[in-house]
């Protein structure tokens, strides 16, 4: 495989699909147990360093990836601006957006942390789909659901005010990666990452975050966000007028 030489390296992680714990992975959900070892033999595992790209916009598609262990952001570059359009974690598929008539990736996939990924060449991926009806159905439904989600997100974000957008952005990282025992996000986004996601100026985001901290909805320590009142944050993301009814 020639994708991003120097960024992707072979890993000593040789976990098989049969023993993998990512229950939400489409391979685990759609390939029957009697065929899982055959499927597992079709993949190769790679490691991507934090901050490096798994693939870049404009590259030819060589296959698809499943995140075995890690976190990634998917970025669409348009008119010299970046838009963070998706967050992916353990078990998620990455690279499928490039499967089209052009067979070129339209997006970048960037590792938020050191990530191990399972790579299936296109020929193998299509073979798995043709030989496993459940997997084919699961992938088809995933592609349809993701398209619907992207369209709905673009529609609703265009109608939110600045505070609602910032609350929504923090919730997206919460839902993607969760929190630790102290309610600190397992991955806290940088202000620039929120800016790329929400298409808001950094200054506006910092102002709204300060407001949420002042109201006791979230906290921040050394650049890490602590979600103190997730239900209220969710309510604010839908209707910022809720903040007027929140007792300080």
Output the keywords.
248 residues; alpha+beta; Jelly Rolls; Arc Repressor Mutant, subunit A; 2 domains; 4-stranded antiparallel sheet; 22% strand; disordered N terminus
Question: How do the strands and helices of this protein lay out in sequence?
Answer:
Layout: E1 8-10, H1 26-30, H2 33-40, E2 44-48, E3 53-55, E4 63-69, E5 72-78, E6 81-88, E7 93-94, E8 108-111, E9 115-121, H3 122-131, H4 133-157, H5 162-177, H6 191-198, H7 202-214, E10 218-221, E11 224-227, H8 230-238
Antiparallel strand pairs: 1-2, 2-9, 3-8, 4-7, 4-9, 5-6, 5-8, 10-11
Helix pairs in contact: 3-4, 5-7, 5-8
Quick structural summary:
This protein is an alpha+beta fold. The protein has helices at 26-30, 33-40, 122-131, 133-157, 162-177, 191-198, 202-214, 230-238; strands at residues 8-10, 44-48, 53-55, 63-69, 72-78, 81-88, 93-94, 108-111, 115-121, 218-221, 224-227.
Largest sheet: 5 strands, antiparallel
The class by helix and strand makeup works out as: alpha+beta
> Could you say which overall geometry the principal axes of the C-alpha atoms support?
elongated
Integer-rounded radius of gyration: 19 Å
- Given the structure, what is the number of helices? 8
Which range best describes the helical content: under 10%, 10-25%, 25-40%, 40-55%, 55-70% or over 70%? 25-40%
CATH fold-type name of the largest domain: Jelly Rolls
Distance between the termini: 56 Å
Order of helices and strands: EHHEEEEEEEEHHHHHEEH
Assigned CATH architecture of the largest domain: Sandwich
The fourth-level CATH homologous superfamily of the largest domain is Jelly Rolls
């Amino acid at each position: 495989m020639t994708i991003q030489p120097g960024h992707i390296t072979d890993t000593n992680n040789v976990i098989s699909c049969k023993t993998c714990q990512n229950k939400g992975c489409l391979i685990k959900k759609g390939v029957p147990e009697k065929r899982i070892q055959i499927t597992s033999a079709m993949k190769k595992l790679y490691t991507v360093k934090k901050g490096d790209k798994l693939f870049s916009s404009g590259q030819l598609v060589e296959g698809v990836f499943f995140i075995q262990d890690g976190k990634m952001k998917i970025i669409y570059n348009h008119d010299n601006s970046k838009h963070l359009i998706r967050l992916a974690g353990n078990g998620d598929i990455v690279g499928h957006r490039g499967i089209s008539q052009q067979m070129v990736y339209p997006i970048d996939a960037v590792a938020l942390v050191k990530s191990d990924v399972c790579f299936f060449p296109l020929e193998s991926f299509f073979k798995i789909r043709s030989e496993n009806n459940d997997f084919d159905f699961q992938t088809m439904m995933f592609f349809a659901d993701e398209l619907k989600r992207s369209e709905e997100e673009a529609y609703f974000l265009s109608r939110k005010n600045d505070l609602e957008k910032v609350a929504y952005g923090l919730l997206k990282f919460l839902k993607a990666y969760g929190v630790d025992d102290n309610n600190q996000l397992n991955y806290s986004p940088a202000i620039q990452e929120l800016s790329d996601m929400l298409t808001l100026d950094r200054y506006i985001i910092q102002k709204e975050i300060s407001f949420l901290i002042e109201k006791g909805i979230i906290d921040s320590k050394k650049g890490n966000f602590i979600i103190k009142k997730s239900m209220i944050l969710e309510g604010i993301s839908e209707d910022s007028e809720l903040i007027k009814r929140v007792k300080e």
